[in-house]
Hints:
Blueprint: H1 3-35, E1 46-51, E2 65-70, E3 74-79, E4 85-96, E5 99-108, E6 111-121, E7 126-135, E8 142-151
Antiparallel strand pairs: 1-2, 1-8, 2-3, 3-4, 4-5, 5-6, 6-7, 7-8
Amino acid sequence: xxxxxxxxxxxxxxxxxxxxxxxxxxxxxxxxxxxxxxxxxxxxxxxxxxxxxxxxxxxxxxxxxxxxxxxxxxxxxxxxxxxxxxxxxxxxxxxxxxxxxxxxxxxxxxxxxxxxxxxxxxxxxxxxxxxxxxxxxxxxxxxxxxxxxxxxx
Length: 153
């Protein structure tokens, strides 16, 4: 067997395997992104948020389920565990079909809480979110929670 032919064939096989691997990865990502779509607007929608984690000073709503009802620029939030309600203003942006972010401003007593919720869909009605908050006058200054969401409407 020709020494050069064998090394060329080995390079061709490696190149084919790399191309197959890249194609497989692209196929996986395209099927995930086509599998779900977040809404373009939250106005008139209702959302359930399940918060993961252990209750602590940095995660006071852990293991809670929150029901959020949205209008054009405001929302009403109700903690289904305690019945306590909150109101705030928000802005919602969808970056991709499967990725969006809500920026909110909520009054908590005399303090204001500014936060973001980043949504990644799993289906058209469900997915995961990351809640990040910056608070004035309430400790700790920055905290994050994760959880699941379900769109009811």
